[in-house]
């Protein structure tokens, strides 16, 4: 498979490096003003420098959302001829991308998250009816090479994906920050408090990830009546405060995602 990346920063680089390492992609070309150009290695500073007669199977758009339109502007008809364009640009709609491409190729919107950097990502994918099943399968496989991938049927659902898994790693990091701070206040050395929080997050996530794991059952298994966990859970669950907070926070993220999409 012959893939062109437009933008090879944090997200583009994580995806491209993983796809090459997994053998899913044989030939990778990169356009990014921040890299050292080397045409023989398929590395270019500008899209205009990519040979106009080169065809690609997949073109990944991984620039900041505000640059999406100008970044696609230099694609030739030959670049697009058999390509599917996969955009990871948050909030940039499928309609906007199709217009920017002059309708020359099918478009997939992907919402990955930062754990793709360690092969434990979670990506929401959306494609309209122009994408055939064979290519849909291939794109799904590419994102499964960096974690889990889930297709949504409606483009608007990507706003909810953004609010849950796109921004989600930050919520867990915030909880770990709070847990580590609490550990320090309870008398632990900072490094130990940090390590306890991180290893506990990792262990809990690993348990949740087991087949058929039920979150409530996992929680109940740690919560003996009148024990230490029960004392803490009672505080979190007072008037369902934690759940209300999570609901309000994810609604705010969802609202912001909708606003960003409407601006694109
Ligand atoms: N990071 C995440 O967790 C995450 C999650 C989901 C989606 N995304 C999406 O992924 C996209 C990229 O985010 P990122 O965090 O990887 O940003 P990033 O690290 O800033 O990478 C973007 C890269 O694109 C380059 N670039 C700018 N204009 C270009 C152009 N016209 N042609 C080619 N390359 C160009 C930038 O170069 P310069 O720095 O020299 O301008 C930079 O190297 C964003 O749209 C974001 O919404 C990111």
Unreliable residue runs? none
Helix-strand category: alpha/beta
The helix content is 40-55%
Structural domain count: 2
Please, what is the average pLDDT? 96
- What is the ordering of alpha helices and beta strands? EHEEEHHEHEEHEHHHHHH
How far apart lie the N and C ends? 30 Å
Question: What does the model show?
Answer:
The chain has 264 residues and is of the alpha/beta class. The protein has two domains: 2-155, Rossmann fold, CATH 3.40.50; 168-261, ProC C-terminal domain-like fold (Orthogonal Bundle), CATH 1.10.3730. The protein contains eleven helices and eight strands. It has helices at residues 10-22, 68-72, 77-80, 94-100, 133-144, 157-166, 168-185, 190-209, 215-222, 228-237, 241-263, and strands spanning 2-6, 27-31, 43-44, 58-61, 84-87, 107-111, 121-127, 147-151. An eight-stranded mixed sheet has the order 3-2-1-4-5-6-7-8, with helices on both faces. The two termini are 30 Å apart. The mean pLDDT is 96. NADP nicotinamide-adenine-dinucleotide phosphate (NAP) binds at residues 6-12, 31-34, 62-65, 67, 70-71, 88-90, 111-114, 166.
Task: Label this structure with key terms.
264 residues, alpha/beta, Rossmann fold, ProC C-terminal domain-like fold, 2 domains, 8-stranded mixed β-sheet, 11 helices, 8 strands, binds NADP nicotinamide-adenine-dinucleotide phosphate
